[in-house]
Amino acid sequence: MKLYGFWRSLATYRVKVALALKGMQVEEVSIDLLKGMQHQPDYKSVNPQAVVPSLVLDDGKPPLFQSMAIMEWLDETKPQPPLLPKDPRGRARVRGIALISAADAHPLVVPRIRVYLEKTLQLPEEKRNAWLMHWSLEALKAMEVHLKEKDTGRFCHGDSPTIADICLAGQVVGAQGYFKCDVSSVPTVMRVYEECMKLEAFSKAHPLKQPGASLH
Fold first, then answer.
1. How far apart are CA 7 and CA 167, in angstroms?
2. pTM for the complete prediction?
3. Cβ–Cβ < 8 Å for 195, 154
4. Which end of the chain is more exposed for a tag (fewer CB within 10 A), N or C?
């Protein structure tokens, strides 16, 4: 398998954590989003949306795309350890928490949005940063409320990591590590995040620990 991604990409981070939790090794190919490599014809033939990640399997079929879809494919094809609960209601709760980040918040702060705010809308840096901080923190605040529910354990849902934890961890990385948000208002989120970071699958894949991070 071959994973096209980028060190800074939170969506790539999600897939790398899921792969690590499953004990799976892949060849990684860097698509430098900051240099616009995602728009080159070679990569657009892999992912016509010009985003990462993309996972190319060894079956000769079209690549898998979108981090949530890739994580669910991993869970369906390699069930252990599970990334989703067994019961339908639990699965819906985990997916819901995950999607707060993956579907609602993260898409508002990705490079193509930041470029649009800067180049097309010509927003000054101060206002762009306010945008990034606002939506990043709003997601964490929403997660915080859901984590007050009784199904929360050591992790978002019970005592084993799920895709909810993977998305939560990525959201914290973006909010705290990239956009310097004050996360003091989300103590439960941060408790779960710290639990995640005790696991090598989460900590080793941390974007700011990747080789590319030291070059920027």
1. 16
2. 0.96
3. yes
4. C
- Show me where the domains of the chain are located: 2-81, 88-207
46-66 per-position pLDDT tens digit: 999 999 999 999 999 999 999
**Distance between CA atoms of 97 and 206, rounded to whole angstroms?**
20
CB 144 within 8 A of CB 186: yes
Superfamily of domain 2-81: Glutaredoxin (3.40.30.10)
**Integer distance in angstroms from the first to the last C-alpha of the chain?**
28
Paired tokens of 61: 């079929």
Give, in words, the CATH class of 88-207.
mainly alpha
Q: How far apart are CA 40 and CA 57, in angstroms?
A: 21
Contact between 111 and 128 (Cβ < 8 Å): no
- The type of residue at 6 is F
163-206, pLDDT tens digit by residue?
A: 999 999 999 999 999 999 999 999 999 999 999 999 999 999 99
Q: Report CA 58 to chain centroid distance, whole Å.
A: 24
pLDDT band for position 107 (50/70/90)? Answer: very high
Place of tokens 């892999």: 46
